[in-house]
Specification:
Largest sheet: none
Structural class: mainly alpha
Oligomer: single chain
Shape: elongated
Number of helices: 1
Distance between the termini: 79 Å
């Protein structure tokens, strides 16, 4: 039984000096820098909404009816 390798898998002698398949668009360290900046941006977005529940959007502090009371979200 003989096996036949596809011609794409067999390296030819003229391709000996060109072994790079895909080059990166920039240095590898910049992938980490871009990821860190993206995560810090998302963290800043998350922190921008911090403590917004304390603003009391329904006016419960003034004695008005809490529309979320029936959902089990209020602590009695």
């Amino acid at each position: 039984m003989t096996s036949v390798l596809p011609s794409a898998l067999v390296a030819s002698p003229e391709d000996a000096g060109h072994s790079v398949v895909n080059e990166l668009p920039f240095e590898p360290i910049w992938f980490g820098v871009i990821a860190m900046v993206a995560f810090l941006g998302l963290l800043a977005l998350l922190f921008s909404f911090r403590n917004t529940l304390a603003l009391d959007p329904h006016g419960v502090g003034e004695g008005q009816h809490d529309p979320d009371a029936g959902r089990g979200t209020s602590a009695h």
